[in-house]
Amino acid sequence: MARWVSRRRFLQTTGWTAAGAGLVGSAAAGAGPSETAQTDQKIKIIGIACSPRKGKTTAQAVQVALEASKAVAPDRIETELIDLAELEIPGYVAAGIPLKEGQRDDFPAIAEKLADKQTAGIIVGSPVYFGNMSYLCKAFLDRCIALRMRRFALSGKVAGAVAVGGVRNGGQEMTLQAIAAALSCQEMLLVGDGKPTAHWGATVWNNGTDDITQDEFGMATSKNLGRRVAEVALACRAK
User: Fold this and answer.
1) CATH number of the domain that 183 lies in?
2) Would 26 be classed as within a structural domain?
3) What is the pLDDT of residues 53-98, one digit of tens each?
4) pTM, rounded to two decimals
């Protein structure tokens, strides 16, 4: 218990190690029930590609989902893809361990974007490694503990997940479940891929060519996921 309290105090005093104090106020305002949502209010949906291979199949699958999100209401929805491949996300900071001297940390800038009140939806994508998410995805989700401890800055935002595997049934659904478990701890609103595929998220197959467009079913799930995230995000903001 003492160890947990110590870690909690560290995170509370350092935030995400570099984020400004103003983020607490903006996050709280975004999550508060008193915020007046306008029907024409623009929203943002952010995709996080958690593969160490920059611009490859995971980033491509998340981008497909984002394009489908944008298509729901082009005049109201903005999208952004954040590719973690060349970024530094030290996972050990989530345990309350200070950054090593000279260690770069790109998480604070990402946290600012995710907590921004305009951000209404987040799509997290990961390749499948041994039936689970990548180390980069786990580090990212672990670091999101800082957002949870900052008054649940992601509360009420819509979340979806994408998993890309080397075979058609290579652990994609288990990876989706693992990502969903982490996001549910943030009080996010989890959605799967919408109809007609309508399961737990986007399940994409990379057949070894890095051309995921050949996977028609996987592309359908990515598009349906992006559309569903956008629909629910817009509906939530309209209330």
Assistant:
1) 3.40.50.360
2) no
3) 999 999 999 999 999 999 999 999 999 999 999 999 999 999 999 9
4) 0.86
